[in-house]
Design goal:
globular, 4 helices, mainly alpha, single chain
Length: 90
């Protein structure tokens, strides 16, 4: 596990659980949180346009979301799959 991911996982473990699995703590940052949400919507639109709808589309969406955040906002975001490597997503 890369150091930044490990750091985020350790922070996420210490936070109260509001949902199943760990969530990248950057999503709760006052500056980055809204950008994470906006990039998720943009990634969903890209998925629909590219025909990635239904099972397995979450992986395409998360990949695009991470790319958008890094390229447009210089934010490193870890997907639910990265934060929860032993969980299967479809």
């Amino acid at each position: 596990m890369e150091p930044l991911l490990r750091e985020r996982v350790l922070i996420a473990i210490q936070r109260p659980k509001r949902q199943r699995g760990l969530v990248d703590p950057i999503q709760e940052d006052p500056h980055a949180g809204p950008l994470v949400s906006a990039s998720a919507e943009e990634a969903r639109e890209l998925a629909q346009h590219a025909g990635h709808i239904g099972r397995g589309s979450c992986h395409f969406i998360w990949h695009e979301q991470a790319r958008i955040l890094l390229e447009c906002h210089n934010i490193v975001w870890f997907s639910p799959k990265q934060m929860n490597p032993h969980t299967i997503y479809d």
